[in-house]
Write a structure and sequence with these properties.
By secondary structure, the chain is of the alpha/beta class. It has 21 helices and five strands. The protein is globular, with a radius of gyration of 23 Å. Bound molecules: flavin-adenine dinucleotide.
């Protein structure tokens, strides 16, 4: 009996999974392997929220494999050493893996390739994470697109393949497995109180419900903070519980302005990945350095993290992040701009806090969106400052989002909730809510002076 290993990393699903499909086609039996990777933990990437979600994903994947006659094989340790060990134990001739873009994933792939080669085995890498693989479309002059609009034009012209047929059976050889990990086995600390359940089954249910109606209103409603009218599929895409190819095909079949605006947003995910694949160092380094000498403001950063800046919209979004391990995209833009431009604090400080909490925390999407907002990334308007009060008027007109997330202000009616410093003194005194941390105009002016090379 020939054996192949399907090493699950960023593709925790059985539907439309090119890695699993290729492993099944390559051999009589497949080891569906997940390695609880010491390297990912040591890199500080395993945090309670994503650990809880990942544990759900693994349990769900195990169930899906069992219903096809197989099961998930779990090991723990150095991913390369464990894969080689499993290959030796089972006599596997090939290992199948999703291509991924972070520096860590690129190193892992290279190390694994070398280790397998020395024992006469093949590493087969498959494009299963994005709709259009990184590097598949490039401008004439370089290895990636630096601006989204021309990228998206090309991206839209690439034919999207048909989703793969679902495997009926997954025959697995006899091989030792550790038990499925719980969230607590994977990371120390308590997760946020209200997290989505992870896994392909839940992801598919949510995707079906989303495509069955709400997606058609996405173009009009995606920025409405209180309306909460985005798909919330990001963690399922991050862990690969959903195939981006299948999602885009199904949304395209729905058609219309809402579904097509949604498809465009999914293309941002591919855009960030093609950039990071070509320049993995931009996870930590400025993509376009602006000579910033960021301010170190420990106490102010602590207030930002806790949602106590005195700007209700900023604070509401930060509280949503703490409570749900997720934040509305408009909230991410507002809070990131507040930190990097009004407070003029290094984007890496904010990106780290987001990665500590986001259940969809993703190196490509998080670091490059932070850089985009900070003006060191791919934005064509790097010095634009997002004003939380203007945003409040546009995207939380009646103040419902703030009242939902900042209980100290729940009794303040209407849009007045966005400017508590203007409330009558006796009302103001009753509220356990801070004065603004910083004057918006002062912060904005300091930022513009700094970026134009003046005093910092
Ligand atoms: C500072 C900052 C940090 C961010 N960090 C992350 C992160 O760690 N992980 C993450 O997945 N997204 C991140 N985003 C992008 C975006 O905010 C989230 O993808 C989105 O809010 C997820 O909610 P949703 O699934 O309801 O999105 P929808 O609006 O329903 O969009 C559908 C999908 O498109 C993709 N998408 C949407 N917007 C973007 C975008 N701007 N960039 C890349 N992909 C996008 C996501 O996969 C999302 O699930 C960040 C944005 C900012 C401004």
């Amino acid at each position: 009996m020939s054996v192949a290993i399907c090493l699950f990393t960023a593709d925790l699903r059985v539907h439309d999974n090119p890695v699993l499909r290729a492993a099944l086609d390559a051999a009589d039996q497949v080891v569906p392997l997940f390695v609880v990777d010491d390297g990912v933990r040591d890199a500080g990437f395993v945090v309670p929220n994503r650990a809880a979600f990942l544990a759900d994903c693994l349990a769900d994947l195990d169930g899906a494999l069992r219903s096809r006659g197989g099961r998930l094989v779990v090991r723990r340790g150095d991913v390369v050493a464990e894969v080689v060990r499993v290959a030796e134990e089972t006599g596997a001739g090939s290992v199948h893996l999703a291509r991924d873009v972070s520096a860590y994933a690129q190193r892992r792939e290279a190390r694994l390739g070398r280790a397998l080669e020395t024992s006469g085995r093949r590493l087969c890498v498959h494009d299963s994470v994005t709709v259009v693989p990184p590097g598949a479309i490039t401008p004439a002059s370089r290895g990636h697109f630096a601006v989204f609009t021309p990228y998206f034009r090309k991206w839209s012209d690439v034919p999207v393949r048909e989703p793969l047929a679902d495997p009926d059976t997954v025959p697995v050889p006899a091989v030792r497995s550790e038990r499925l990990p719980s969230g607590a086995d994977l990371a120390d600390g308590a997760p946020s109180p209200v997290l989505p359940r992870g896994g392909e089954g839940e992801g598919r249910r949510r995707a079906a419900a989303w495509l069955d109606g709400p997606v058609t209103r996405y173009a009009d409603r995606h920025d409405d903070l209180a309306g909460d009218a985005t798909s919330r599929l990001s963690p399922y895409l991050h862990f690969g519980c959903l195939s981006a190819v299948e999602l885009v095909r199904r949304a395209t079949a729905v058609g219309g302005p809402g579904a097509m605006a949604f498809v465009r947003q999914v293309a941002w995910r591919d855009f960030n990945r093609q950039l990071l694949a070509d320049h993995p160092e931009v996870a930590h380094e400025d993509y376009r350095p602006r000579g910033d000498r960021w301010r170190a403001e420990e106490a102010a950063v602590a207030a930002w993290r806790r949602g106590r800046t005195g700007y209700p919209l900023v604070d509401a979004a930060m509280r949503q992040l703490a409570e749900q391990g997720w934040m509305h995209n408009r909230g991410r833009l507002i809070t990131a701009s507040f930190l990097t431009k009004i407070m003029y604090v290094d984007w890496r400080v904010g990106a780290r806090h987001f990665l500590d909490l986001l259940v969809d925390g993703d190196v490509a999407n998080n670091q490059l969106n932070w850089q985009w907002v900070a003006g060191t990334g791919a934005s064509t308007r790097p010095n634009q400052v997002i004003d939380p009060l203007v945003q409040a008027r546009r995207f939380d007109r009646r103040g419902d989002y703030v009242r939902r997330w900042v209980p100290e202000l729940a009794e303040i009616e209407g849009a007045a909730v966005h400017r508590p410093w203007l409330l009558p003194t006796e009302v103001r005194r009753r509220l356990d809510y801070p004065d603004p941390l910083i004057d918006l105009d002062e912060g904005r002016e300091r930022f513009h002076r700094a970026r134009s090379g003046g005093e910092r």
